[in-house]
Write a structure and sequence with these properties.
8 helices, 7-stranded parallel β-sheet, globular, alpha/beta, 14% strand, 44% helix
């Protein structure tokens, strides 16, 4: 299937590894060009180099108000156009409702929530018909995850923002959607499951609750992200798409 991605240009944030990198790789594999970001410029440049000449790496912190416009400008300066953005942000600090501090909430709000809103708002102002804005969120949009209270609080808010934005920019032919990864075998997921005294037992227990009985791979997620951003998904907007092996119930 031709996704129509050839020579289209996307920004993918938080893409030096994990789901962001896998998504950038899938876009490039189907002919797109990407600007990938990471907090450390060296890591972003190295990750882009691994993807080849159709990728460029930029050091950018989502919490920096100047980052959003700089990334759009980089896409146009390097590749001559800008067709969409995938906003992938790092997970906030784990903890409970009682243990997370004001400082942790504030830091997470700046990077996870407000940083993502800024990126999407800037992209919406720069995109034309056929543009796409994607958010990498979490199954916590629908079901709280134990030990991740800040994520449980912020990600559903971003889903609401995405839906509101999709209503506003839809008449201009711009799509907005969210992707909800479940247990994907990334470094962060391994770290979270490693909090158990027995990581192997934790993985087995988690897999038993997934209808497909296995963790997903970053590459599987990346292919879904590439499709969602592509012209092939031209009537898909205003939705949250679980990529979780069927773990969420009723969605």
């Amino acid at each position: 299937m031709d996704l129509g991605l050839k020579d289209r240009v996307y920004v993918v944030t938080g893409a030096t590894r994990g789901l962001g990198y896998a998504s950038a790789a899938a876009l490039v594999a189907d002919g797109a060009k990407v600007v990938i970001t990471g907090r450390e410029e060296k890591a972003a440049v190295e990750a882009a180099a691994a993807l080849g000449s159709n990728a460029v790496g930029v050091g950018a912190d989502n919490a920096d108000p100047a980052s959003a416009q700089r990334l759009v400008d980089t896409a146009r300066e390097r590749f001559g156009r800008f067709d969409g953005i995938l906003i992938s942000v790092g997970g906030p600090a784990p903890g409970s409702a009682a243990s997370n501090t004001d400082e942790q909430w504030t830091a997470a709000f700046e990077s996870v929530f407000l940083g993502a809103v800024r990126l999407a708002r800037t992209a919406a102002g720069e995109l034309g018909e056929g543009g796409a804005i994607g958010f990498v969120l979490s199954g916590s949009v629908y079901e709280p995850i134990g030990g991740l209270t800040i994520s449980n609080g912020l990600r559903p808010g971003l889903a609401g923002f995405a839906k509101s934005l999709s209503d506003e920019v839809g008449p201009r032919g711009i799509r907005v959607l969210g992707l909800l990864p479940g247990r994907i075998a990334t470094d962060r997921m391994k770290q979270l499951d490693g909090l158990s005294p027995d990581p192997a037992a934790a993985r087995t227990a988690n897999e038993s609750r997934i209808p497909l009985r296995r963790y997903g791979t970053p590459e599987e997620f990346g292919r879904v992200a590439a499709f969602a951003l592509s012209p092939a998904a031209s009537y898909l907007t205003g939705v949250m798409v679980p990529v979780d092996g069927g773990a969420l119930r009723g969605f």
